Amino acid sequence: MGVGVRIAGRILRDRSRRAPDADLHPDARAASPVSSRDVQAVRSARSVGQRSRSVRQASRRFGEAVWGPFVHVSGVLWLEVTGLFFGIFTLFFAENVYRLRDQYAAGAEHRKFLIYAAMMAVFLYFTFTSFYRAHRKARRARP
């Protein structure tokens, strides 16, 4: 969980350092006074259109800036929790392999030993690949 919090903090810190874009501010020419009412109405309509576009862009960027890091961090956290879940199953099967270690070559529990060993190997693979993918995804977020 600490990795996810560090990634989110780093992403938010980097995005807050960026300079605001020039297109977020309304054009100064659209606010100048005009003598004719018709020309003024046309210019105010253009100004409203520009403002609505800039508000849409600003809200989209705000959503990306706020939710983007949380989506990324939740993905990393999901992979870590999944790896932990698979690790618990790996320990369960490893315990049974250890308990039946005397009967690996021959014995009444030979089949169970082989099944437990195979399942332990599969869940061990799932555990390591899940943590590896989380590590790789966390490294991608770094600048």
How is this fold's topology laid out?
Elements: H1 2-17, H2 37-99, H3 110-140
Helix pairs in contact: 1-2, 2-3
Based on helices, strands and strand pairing, what is the structural class?
mainly alpha
General shape: rod-shaped
Beta-strand residue percentage: under 5%
CA-to-CA gap between the ends?
Answer: 20 Å
Q: Count up the domains.
A: 1
Which value, in Å, is the CA radius of gyration? Answer: 29 Å
Number of strands: 0
Number of helical segments with 4 or more residues? 3
H-E string? HHH
Helix content: over 70%
Largest sheet: none
Return the average pLDDT rounded to an integer. Answer: 77
What are the segments in which pLDDT stays under 50 over at least 5 consecutive residues?
21-25, 31-35
Structural description of this entry:
There is one protein chain. The chain is built from three helices and no strands. The chain has one domain (2-140). The chain has helices spanning 2-17, 37-99, 110-140. The longest helix is centred in the middle third of the chain and has 63 residues, at 37-99. Helix content is 77%, strand content 0%. The chain has 143 residues and is an all-alpha fold. Helix 1 (2-17) runs antiparallel to helix 2 (37-99) and helix 2 packs antiparallel against helix 3 (110-140).
